[in-house]
Every structure is written in C-alpha cells, then in structure tokens.
Specification:
Its main location: membrane. One of its GO terms (cellular component) is plasma membrane. This protein is mainly alpha-helical. It contains 15 helices and 2 strands. The chain has one domain. A two-stranded antiparallel ribbon has the order 1-2. The two termini are 26 Å apart.
C-alpha cells in the first residue's frame, strides 16, 4: 500500500506543476485524467469483481446531463456532482438487481441495452435534455473568482477526480470489501459457501463504480460545455473506457491509469503523425497488447514481479 500511496503522491505533485510547464497541452492532459478516472472506476466492477460492463457511457452521460440541467436551473456543480453520483448509484442498484442473476455474457449485453435506453430518453425528452440537438452549459458560477470554463481549472478538477478515484481503489483493495470482490470474481459458488452474498457484493461494486464514473461525467460536461446524446451515450465511449482498463491491466491499482496514458496519448500522437493511417496503427497496438500481454501491461509486470519474488524465496 505504501508504494501505491507514493505513486499517488507523485501523480498529484506532477499534476500540480504540469500546467506551468505545458500550458498549451492541457486538453489532452484533461482527457487522459478523465479516462484514467473512468477506467479505474470501471475496474472496480470489471476488474476487481469480474463483471464486464459495456455501458458505462450511461453514467458518464448521466453525470454530464445532471450538471448541464443543474446549471440551467442555477445549481452549482459542487451540488450537481454529488447529486449525479447518487443518481448513478440508484440507477446501478436497480440495473444490477435486475441483471446480476444473469450469467456469462448476458450481463454485458444488458449494459449496452441500458445505455441505449438512456440515449433514447435523452433524445425524446427534449423539455429536459434539449433532445437530439443537445444542451449547452452556458454559465457556471465562479467560486473564489475561478472560471470553471478555463482549461487550467478544468485540469485541476480532472486531476482531483483521477487522484480521488485511484485513492478510493487503493483503500478498497486493502479492506474486507476488496477481498470480497476478488472472492466473487474467482468463484461465486465458493464465495457463497463461505457465507458471502455474491449479488450483494456485485451490487455494491456496481454502485461505487457508477457513482465515481458519474462524477467524471459531470466534469466532462463542463469541459465540453455542450452535451449531445448520440456522443455522450455512445457504445464507442463505453468500449474505450473498458479497453483502457483492459489494456492497462484489470484488477490492478495503476493499470487503468497506465492504459489511459498509453491509449489516449498514442491516439493523439498517431492522429497528428500518421494522419489517415492513425486508426490502423492504433488498432494494431491494441491487438498486440491483447495477444502478447493478455493480463494488461501492469498486470503482466505484477505477474513477473510475483514470479521473481517466489523464485528468490525458493532459492533461499
């Protein structure tokens, strides 16, 4: 745990000085931090608990719309973000209670369906969401004179979000709940025989993952300043969040953050360097990681570290 806390401290310190050193590269950094937070939140359910979701864009969109609708009614983001987290947790509870009795790929398919339902609601309930044309976030209050539309302020908010989610996972991985998550992931029947309620454990994981994701979605809405349902609830965004955690290493503290740095950074580099060929090279990179390091980058490093440690013990 000490190593993780040191890494978290390094992230905060580096993030604190980043805008001073690279003031012209804040947008890409905000994207990396948001995806790091979303993927780490996704990993609470998809990695630590083993329940793969392909619908986390629904929580991103829910958070963004809560902030946007709140702003149109004079509700400040620091009130709207907790409200978004609560709304996402309630949605996850109802969603999970209905679908966690499904086995195999059926839960993953249900997550796609729920995200699509929310997209259709956002399109058809124009009186609330602006409909298919979307909704602008025109004004936001300025706490202590801070412009929340400025990229610097948004960077520090994204940094706080990513650091907060990673800190949450560090704590969860070391407490009883974290061990319950891993027990259910490895063998539900054995966990049940040991006295655990697998559905209850998965519900708590889903609610925590959803609430954290929705907070990041609210920040994303502030960054975009315009929310359009076809984009914010898209399957592509859900897949990107899941891929970020899988490529980095599921069930690890730092895997999703490393995945965000690699995928978002590589995507931006390929787009500017290779122009039309960027998607091909991006796809080859993902394929190479899946084929040669199926545990993810950090997952493979952890595996090799554990093997070396046991080998030294066997020799001593």
């Amino acid at each position: 745990m000490t190593t993780h806390l040191v890494g978290l401290g390094v992230l905060v310190v580096v993030g604190a000085v980043y805008p001073l050193v690279f003031p012209g590269a804040l947008t890409i950094a905000i994207t990396v931090l948001l995806f790091a937070g979303w993927a780490t939140a996704w990993d609470v359910l998809g990695g630590w608990n083993g329940q793969v979701s392909l619908g986390h864009a629904s929580f991103v969109g829910l958070g963004a719309y809560v902030v946007a609708i709140g702003a149109s009614h004079g509700i400040a983001p620091w009130w709207a973000l907790p409200l978004a987290a609560v709304a996402a947790a309630v949605l996850a509870y109802g969603w999970g209670w209905t679908t966690f009795r499904l086995r195999g790929p059926y839960f993953s398919l249900s997550t796609i369906a729920v995200a699509e339902i929310l997209r259709l609601i956002a399109i058809n309930e124009g009186w609330l969401t602006g409909g298919a044309t979307g909704v602008f976030i025109a004004t936001l209050p300025e706490p202590f004179g801070i412009d929340l539309f400025s990229r610097t302020a948004q960077f520090y908010l994204a940094l706080a979000f990513a650091a907060g989610v990673i800190a949450t996972v560090i704590v969860v991985s070391r407490i009883r709940f974290g061990y319950q998550l891993r027990a259910v992931r490895e063998d539900e029947e054995a966990a049940m025989a040991a006295g655990l309620d697998p559905t209850g454990v998965k519900l708590r994981a889903f609610m925590l993952s959803a609430a954290l994701t929705a907070v990041g979605g609210g920040l994303y809405g502030m960054v975009l300043a315009f929310i359009e349902p076809h984009v914010i609830f898209s399957l592509l965004l859900s897949v990107q969040i899941a891929l970020t955690a899988i490529i980095g290493g599921r069930g690890t503290v730092w895997g999703p953050a490393v995945g965000a740095l690699i995928l978002v950074g590589a995507g931006e580099a390929f787009r500017t360097t290779f122009a039309q060929a960027n998607l091909l090279i991006y796809g080859v990179l993902i394929l190479a990681v899946v084929l040669f390091v199926p545990r993810g980058i950090v997952g493979e490093l952890v595996r090799r570290h554990v093997r070396r440690r046991y080998a030294r013990r066997a020799q001593s």
